[in-house]
Amino acid sequence: MVKRFLSRGYDELRQVEIIPHYYPHGDGSCFVKFGRTHVICAATIEERVPPFLRNLGTGWVTAEYGMLPCSCNERTDREAVRGKQSGRTSEIQRLIGRSLRSVVDMNVLGSRQIKVDCDVILADGGTRTASITGAFVALHLTCQKLLKNKTIAMSPITKHVVAVSCGVVNGTPLLDLDYSEDSVADVDSNFIMSDDMIIEIQMCGEKRPFTESELDQLLVLARKGRDELIGKQKVAIGG
Amino acid sequence: MVKRFLSRGYDELRQVEIIPHYYPHGDGSCFVKFGRTHVICAATIEERVPPFLRNLGTGWVTAEYGMLPCSCNERTDREAVRGKQSGRTSEIQRLIGRSLRSVVDMNVLGSRQIKVDCDVILADGGTRTASITGAFVALHLTCQKLLKNKTIAMSPITKHVVAVSCGVVNGTPLLDLDYSEDSVADVDSNFIMSDDMIIEIQMCGEKRPFTESELDQLLVLARKGRDELIGKQKVAIGG
Amino acid sequence: MVKRFLSRGYDELRQVEIIPHYYPHGDGSCFVKFGRTHVICAATIEERVPPFLRNLGTGWVTAEYGMLPCSCNERTDREAVRGKQSGRTSEIQRLIGRSLRSVVDMNVLGSRQIKVDCDVILADGGTRTASITGAFVALHLTCQKLLKNKTIAMSPITKHVVAVSCGVVNGTPLLDLDYSEDSVADVDSNFIMSDDMIIEIQMCGEKRPFTESELDQLLVLARKGRDELIGKQKVAIGG
Amino acid sequence: MVKRFLSRGYDELRQVEIIPHYYPHGDGSCFVKFGRTHVICAATIEERVPPFLRNLGTGWVTAEYGMLPCSCNERTDREAVRGKQSGRTSEIQRLIGRSLRSVVDMNVLGSRQIKVDCDVILADGGTRTASITGAFVALHLTCQKLLKNKTIAMSPITKHVVAVSCGVVNGTPLLDLDYSEDSVADVDSNFIMSDDMIIEIQMCGEKRPFTESELDQLLVLARKGRDELIGKQKVAIGG
Amino acid sequence: MVKRFLSRGYDELRQVEIIPHYYPHGDGSCFVKFGRTHVICAATIEERVPPFLRNLGTGWVTAEYGMLPCSCNERTDREAVRGKQSGRTSEIQRLIGRSLRSVVDMNVLGSRQIKVDCDVILADGGTRTASITGAFVALHLTCQKLLKNKTIAMSPITKHVVAVSCGVVNGTPLLDLDYSEDSVADVDSNFIMSDDMIIEIQMCGEKRPFTESELDQLLVLARKGRDELIGKQKVAIGG
Amino acid sequence: MVKRFLSRGYDELRQVEIIPHYYPHGDGSCFVKFGRTHVICAATIEERVPPFLRNLGTGWVTAEYGMLPCSCNERTDREAVRGKQSGRTSEIQRLIGRSLRSVVDMNVLGSRQIKVDCDVILADGGTRTASITGAFVALHLTCQKLLKNKTIAMSPITKHVVAVSCGVVNGTPLLDLDYSEDSVADVDSNFIMSDDMIIEIQMCGEKRPFTESELDQLLVLARKGRDELIGKQKVAIGG
Question: What's the CA gap between A70 and A77, in Å, rounded?
Answer without folding.
Answer: 9
